[in-house]
Every structure is written in structure tokens, then in C-alpha cells.
Amino acid sequence: MTTASGNATGHPSSPGARAGGTDRWLRRMAAAPNARTRLICFPHAGGSAGFFFPLLKSLPGTVEAYAVQYPGRQDRLAEPCLTSVDELVDAVCGVLRQEPAMPLVLFGHSMGATLAFEVARRRERSGAGSPLGVVVSGRRAPSLQRTETVHQRDDEGLVAEIRRLSGTDDSLLDDPEIRRMFLPALRADYRAIETYRMAPGPPLRCPLSVFVGDADPRVSVAEAEAWRDHTDGELSLQVFPGGHFYLSDRPEEFSHRLTAELSRLCGSLPGRR
């Protein structure tokens, strides 16, 4: 199962692996036979690809959506977790280089927002091309550094942080077997994002869309608005009611507003599913 905070146990029932089963990193959320744009979604710390499945139900038929499946969870449970943003970005960029050419929009929530941003930077620097846009959610601007040490806590301290974010059913957090399955990936992800420091470099050339909950304990609206310094393109800020997992609390509203943002970034995208 996949909870809002991404304590993913077992195997996804709805999302499909990348066509042909040749790629462990991408899970298809929504097929689009007439796709003109590919949406790549990056989960939060401890999260899995299946987190996005209920959030993408109103996408236009011209957008093919995939979510990244990090190692160390669900069907990749036996694989070693990666513990740095650079390692994760290296892996995802390598996968995207193998994909057929198609305009991209990158979307990430929390830790995933940082990964989406860094993948976009890497692609622009390497000459792979700028995305049509990057949508970042539930994360402060990368220039706003903060000392955080959640990954150094014991298991109880790590679980206490997840409870604080109100993203997971307490009965799951209290289950010893489930905790044994998800805590290593959660700790690795927290280590990756808490040790991340943005390297100097030019701002993105593409537009940035910033989503944030008005009661998020991890990022204020002002910290979200500071993403403005990281693009030469247009910045759009949208504030939602709710906390860190506002998107799971209001999935239909989030889905429709994301679709509207995709339409703005990609041009006219007729025909919802």
C-alpha cells in the first residue's frame, strides 16, 4: 500500500512499469496514445511512484504521465537505497536520456521538488534541452539552506517526524513489520535531502510553478515564493488550503489545478480523460 507520506509497502496494483519492463525507474500513471507531452513526477522522502496515481485523474489525453520509483521500496525493496540528491539525479537523467524525445514537464513534491529542479538544471547544462516547465510542491527554494538532522534520529524520532506531517495512518506507523519495510528508504531519503546543497549556477530558463499548503509546517508561503530567484522564466505561485500533504487531502482540486497549470505550460491540451 502507499500512504500519503509514502510509506509504501507491498507492490503497486494500478501503476504500470515502463512499457516493455526494461526500466525499473519509471512507472506509467496514465497512458496517452496521442501524447504530445510527457509528465515526470518525483515523490517525496519515503514516497513511491504509486503516491501519484490518484492525483492525476483529470490529465488531458495529450499528456503521458510517469512517476519515478526510487530504489529501496515496493518492487525495488531489495535494491540499495541512494543517499544523495546527486546520485538520484544522475540515475534519473540517465533514464531520461534513453527515452524517446518528447517535450517534458517535471513535477515533484517535497524532496521530489528538489530532484525535479536539479534534473531540469542538469538537462539544460548538458544540452538535453529545457523542460516546458517545472512544477515544485511543498518545498522551500533551494537557496534557503537550513540545518536538518531528521535522518540522524533513531527509529522513534523518524516516525515522530512523519506523524508531525500528518501524512500517514497511525496504525501503519505502529505496525513493526511495516516499519521495518519503509524506515530504511525513509531514512535514506531524509539523508539525501538534508545533506543537499545547491551548487552555484545559472537559473532555469523554463517557467517554474510553485504549489504550497498554507499550513505546511515545513515550508512557509514566503519560502515557497523564493523559488522566484531560480528561474529566468515566469514564476506562478498557487497556495492551497492544508498542510504538507494538502494534495492528498484535496485530490480532485489538486488534479484540476495541476491540469490547468499543464495546459498553461504546454499550450492548448484538449480532451480530459
List keywords for this structure.
273 residues; alpha/beta; eight-stranded mixed sheet; 8 helices; 8 strands
Percent range for β-strand residues = 15-25%
* Number of E strands: 8
Mean pLDDT: 86
Taking all Cα atoms into account, the compactness measure Rg is 17 Å
Please tally the helical runs, counting DSSP H or I stretches of 4 or more residues.
8
SSE class: alpha/beta
Low-confidence stretches: 1-14, 18-22, 268-273
* Share of residues in helices: 25-40%
Trace the largest sheet across and list its strands.
1-2-4-3-5-6-7-8
Summarize this structure briefly.
With 273 residues, the protein is of the alpha/beta class. The protein has helices spanning 85-97, 111-126, 155-165, 170-173, 176-194, 221-225, 246-249, 251-266, and strands spanning 16-17, 26-30, 37-42, 63-68, 104-109, 133-137, 208-213, 235-240.
Structure description:
The protein is an alpha/beta fold. Helix content is 32%, strand content 15%. It contains 8 helices and 8 strands. The chain has helices spanning 85-97, 111-126, 155-165, 170-173, 176-194, 221-225, 246-249, 251-266; strands at 16-17, 26-30, 37-42, 63-68, 104-109, 133-137, 208-213, 235-240. It has an 8-stranded mixed β-sheet, sandwiched between helices. α6 links the parallel β7 and β8. α1 (85-97) packs across α2 (111-126). The two termini are 25 Å apart.
